[in-house]
Structure formats: C-alpha cells, structure tokens
Amino acid sequence: MSIQLKPHTTLFLFAHADDEFGIYYAIERALSCGENVVCIYFTKGYPGEEMAEKRRGESYSVLTKIGVSPVNIIFLGYMIGIEDLNLVNKIPDAKNWLEDYIARGVDIDNIYVPCWEGGHPDHDVLHALTVKTFS
Fold it and tell me: 3-class SS at 119?
C-alpha cells in the first residue's frame, strides 16, 4: 500500500464507514490548512456485505470529493478482517497495524477519534485503543 507522507498529518480514526458524517468541517479545515489528511476505518462496518460495501463507497466518494487523497482512505477492517461489533476481539491486530503505520515516519499533528460514549462497543474500543497507543 502506498501512503502519502507529508510533514503535517491529521488522522481521522473511524469505527465504520459513514462515521465521518458530522466531522466533514474538521476534515475540510485540515485540508485547507495544508494538512495531510488520513482517514482510517477500523471495521468492515455493517453486517452483510452489500450494505457495508455501499457505505464504504459513499465514504470514499465524499472524502475524495472534498479533497482527501484516495491513498489516504484506509479501510483497515477490510484489510485485516474486523467485522462490525468485533473490534474488541481484534484489538491486538488493530493496535499492531496502527503502531506499524506510525513507525513508517508519519508526523502526526492531530488525531480525531470517537469519544468514549458508553454505547457502541466499536466506538468505545477505538477510543481506548487510540488513547493507549498515543499516550
């Protein structure tokens, strides 16, 4: 996989395709400031391949339309096989991938991740994983 490395990177970490809805302004702002925007989706998303594929296509389409480089839209859940509601069972795989990604020399200025909401397990696990990885 080719990853576009620039001096100033803003990571947007999402549990599922379509989780970027509602944070487009932050993505657009980072892009307008010259940041290298990277969006990583940690699960396949929805149960059932048809809906998951549809959501993935929608996210990809919107993100590229607002200026995110296609090589910086990473559907990790598809790459390493993390099903919806299953991130908790794949924490080591996700953490290893993220640490390897960081080790490639990505200069991260900002990270956006879902807050701990106590509701959706994928969102909460991603939040905890991010705090643990970057602290």
Answer: coil
Strand partners, 111: 11
According to DSSP H, which parts of 5-48 are helical?
Answer: 24-32
Q: What is the pLDDT of residues 94-113, one digit of tens each?
A: 999 999 999 988 889 999 99
Q: How many whole angstroms separate alpha carbon 58 and alpha carbon 45?
A: 12
Neighbours of 95 (CB within 10 A): 14
Beta-bridge mates of residue 75: 41
Regarding pTM above 0.85, the answer is yes
CA atoms within 13 A on the CB side of 26: 14
SS3 73: strand
